Amino acid sequence: MKTKIVYIFFFVLLFFIGVIGGYIYWIFSDLPDVKALEGYRPFEASVVYSSDGQVLTEFFYERRKFVPHYEIPEIIKKAFVAAEDVRFYKHPGVDVIGILRALYRDIKAGGIVEGGSTITQQLAKMLFLKPEKSITRKIKEAILSIQIERKYTKDEILGLYLNQAYFGNRAYGIAAASEAYFGKSFKELTHAQIALLASLPKAPSAYNPFKKPDIAIKRRNIVLQKMLEEGFITREQYNEALKEALPEHPYWRKFEAPYFVETLRQELESKYGERLYKDGLRIYSTIDYNLQKKAEEAVRNGLIEIHKRVKPQVQASLIAIDLKTGYVKALVGGNDFWETQYNRVFSLRQPGSAFKPFVYAVALMDGWSPDDTILDSPVSFPGSVQGKSWSPKNYNNEYHGEVPLRKAIALSLNAATVRLASQVGIKNVVEFAEQCGLTTKIHPYLSTALGASDVKPIELTAAYSVFATGKKIKPVFYEKITDHNGITIEENKSEIQQILPEEIVEQMRELLQEVVLSGTAQKAKELGREVYGKTGTTNDFSDAWFVGFDDNLLVGVWVGRDNHKPIGAKEAGARAALPIWIDFMKQTGQMLK
């Protein structure tokens, strides 16, 4: 009988040993390889810079800026050690003494008041394990922690933890947390600020200083007390830190040039996909920060003046392009991005008389000169409906008889322009407009000569580069992109194509300068320098334009209502759009030279 019992006990023991051995084997076989940390890099926000070095925005899934461990100040490391794992530099990854101490305090308090997880265990859990609560996970966590400690230095482990930890308020890592909570670099933090950040990873929501300031300050002060006890700060530093107030609001990264940034984001997302939000790219945009501010100010001031004359809800857009490079230097897509994200720079609107230069350019290529004359008198052409005619009218029904081309375009004479389009061929005008970069449907009807076909402000403005330089330029939104190490992965340059010969360009500049000297844009003479351009107005005053340039900058301004209703009586391009253009150009005369 005894022998039988011994055998049974022996087989049961072997069974349990086998089960335990299998369980241990399964745990080890299922563990991730800690060597992966050698190439580890957490998600990092991509940063967009202006051409003059200002940060415009960040693109991210997790707002984070990776910081090498050797750049993190010692006092920050010590604060987190004091708050999370005071024996960090002494244990091998798992702190048995710490576990026993935490267990004793929890029993004494009658609840869980202190955990026993080390910083290394927390790192292992964040990087390799699912957030489930189970004995298996805790065992894996302990094994991984020991393996990590054997392979990496304490500072490397602490650096990884400080880059990976979540601090609340959408901030991951110490660098992003410092900016989110205090609006400054982690290298500039005070002892009180460091202590507050060190208190957050354990429970970011529970210790949120913006929602629970009373709890947050108690927790911060506990961390300061631990820092004092460990000798990380002096009594004087401790007392001074206790007096410091909590931050009152989060410091979100300022979203500059929002219409431009959103346009850039869409372009880059189609090219880079998820990399844009997690690879820490450095995007060097074409926007000039100062020019952008001037553009926003000009649009804002212009709309204030317009709203003194007409009912509200008038919108405006402005785009400025460097004539030499095609770089977009300023872009404003509306009055307020935070009210409406609709970008009017890309909207479809009738250009009115701002389309007329395409007619005159074709005439010049056909052998006409600026001093050749065209008859400006009432005229009728067959309409789109059989048996009906179409008669273009001049503004105020005033006609001037035989006029040179320079006067016809300067005064924006409709009858003369349509006659000219009829003689040179409207199909030739449409083909030339398309050559200059207009991609929308341009109808081969004579009414198109007066701007009856919809265009996009960005394309119409860019097309004027042909009148300014003879070359078609494609607007460029960024100069180059580097990876997080500063290695260039893309350089971006405008596609430039010669369209007009030099002699035609000189004549076109002459015609467009006449618009300023003696025509509808005479107000622009107040700039005191040579500028060129063309006003545009639709029949019912629903669209007002001025597109023009100097020797450096090409700028297009559109004004109108999103619902295509009239802006107001007599709100022509010269009255509604030109003042915005002039205001912007006054501020930028010398900036690109």
Automatic annotation (TrEMBL):
Keywords for this protein: Carboxypeptidase, Cell membrane, Cell shape, Cell wall biogenesis/degradation, Glycosyltransferase, Hydrolase, Membrane, Multifunctional enzyme, Peptidoglycan synthesis, Protease, Transferase, Transmembrane, Transmembrane helix
Coiled-coil regions, chain positions: none
Residue ranges of domain Penicillin-binding protein transpeptidase in the record: 317-550
Principal location class: membrane
Molecular function GO terms recorded: penicillin binding; peptidoglycan glycosyltransferase activity; serine-type D-Ala-D-Ala carboxypeptidase activity
Name of the protein in its database record: Penicillin-binding protein 1
GO CC, alphabetical: outer membrane-bounded periplasmic space; plasma membrane
Catalytic activity, reaction form: [GlcNAc-(1->4)-Mur2Ac(oyl-L-Ala-gamma-D-Glu-L-Lys-D-Ala-D-Ala)](n)-di-trans,octa-cis-undecaprenyl diphosphate + beta-D-GlcNAc-(1->4)-Mur2Ac(oyl-L-Ala-gamma-D-Glu-L-Lys-D-Ala-D-Ala)-di-trans,octa-cis-undecaprenyl diphosphate = [GlcNAc-(1->4)-Mur2Ac(oyl-L-Ala-gamma-D-Glu-L-Lys-D-Ala-D-Ala)](n+1)-di-trans,octa-cis-undecaprenyl diphosphate + di-trans,octa-cis-undecaprenyl diphosphate + H(+); Preferential cleavage: (Ac)2-L-Lys-D-Ala-|-D-Ala. Also transpeptidation of peptidyl-alanyl moieties that are N-acyl substituents of D-alanine
Pfam families reported for this sequence: Transgly (PF00912), Transpeptidase (PF00905)
InterPro entries documented for this protein: Beta-lactam/transpept-like (IPR012338), Glyco_trans_51 (IPR001264), Glycosyltr_51/Transpeptidase (IPR050396), Lysozyme-like_dom_sf (IPR023346), PBP_transglycosylase (IPR036950), PCN-bd_Tpept (IPR001460)
Family the entry assigns: In the N-terminal section; belongs to the glycosyltransferase 51 family.
Domain Glycosyl transferase family: residue ranges: 53-227
Species whose genome carries this gene: Thermodesulfovibrio yellowstonii (strain ATCC 51303 / DSM 11347 / YP87)
One Gene Ontology term from the biological process aspect of the record: cell wall organization
Localization (cell): Cell membrane
Recorded superkingdom: Bacteria
Pathway(s) the chain acts in: Cell wall biogenesis; peptidoglycan biosynthesis
Spans through the membrane: 7-28
